[in-house]
Amino acid sequence: MKHPRSVENYNGTFEELANGIGNMSYDQVAVFLDELAKDFKNQAEADIKRGRPQLAIELFKASFSIEETSLKIKKAWQISKPYM
User: Fold this and answer.
1) Checking CA distances to 83, which of 23, 32, 46, 58 falls within 20 to 30 Å?
2) Distances, alpha carbon 11 to alpha carbons 2, 24, 25, 69, in Å
3) pLDDT > 90: what percent of the chain?
């Protein structure tokens, strides 16, 4: 599988993309992060099957870190929700 160097069907910069995601409501940011974590976990599982354990371990770690971040954003959502 070839990994592209840009986001398909997106023409903005990564800075614009990050700002766009960061400006979304926190509950939706958490949904995005959960999907990203799931994608990295799926890639890690595929790399295990392909005999790439070092790569898989790093992708599993990244997935876990993103899941932790998602939990923090969900807490931020609970704090800010009454004011939205």
Assistant:
1) 32
2) 19, 19, 22, 27
3) 95
